[in-house]
Amino acid sequence: QVQLVESGGGLVQAGGSLRLSCAASRIIFSGNAMNWYRQAPGKQREMVATITTGGSTNYVDSVKGRFTISRDNAKNTVYLQMNSLKPEDTALYYCNAKVVLPGFIRDYWGQGTQVTVSS
Q1: Which stretches within the chain are classed as H helix?
Q2: Is the pLDDT of residue 72 over 80?
Q3: What is the pLDDT of residues 18-62, one digit of tens each?
Q4: Cys staple from 56: which of 29, 40, 41, 52, with CB 3.0 to 4.6 Å?
């Protein structure tokens, strides 16, 4: 079964930390970049961080220096370490895999995990 399962969300005070995990089916994890997105109420979904199979990373400006994405290829798991959290980080966080198929790219999404940061 092809799936992405996130965990680790919760309620935290501003300045605190959370670590999100995303366990992926091997078929969509191996050989593909993995991404974290988030969507706050009334806002569009935005890409927060991405990591390639080789470990190269990229972040949206608003989280640079505070969030770290990593992957464990042996466990088919991608992580998002979030430090110095701010109320504006409050959102539903989604794990995403963009799988390259012949002629197109297919997106796979997890169910999302809620992160709420109180001021």
Answers
A1: 26-29
A2: yes
A3: 999 999 999 888 888 999 999 999 999 999 999 999 999 999 999
A4: 52
Structure-token pair, residue 50: 């991405």
**Closest C-alpha among 15, 47, 52 to residue 32:** 52
Cα–chain center distance at 64? 14
Q: In this model, does residue 83 exceed pLDDT 90?
A: yes
Nearest Cα neighbor of 35 from 94, 118, 90, 85 is: 94
The string of DSSP letters for 93-110 reads: EEEEEEEEETTEEEEEE-
Task: Please list, in sequence order, all residues whose beta carbon lies within 8 angstroms of the beta carbon of residue 6, skipping any fewer than 6 positions away.
Answer: 20, 21, 22, 93, 94, 95, 110, 111, 112, 113
DSSP structure class, residue 55: -
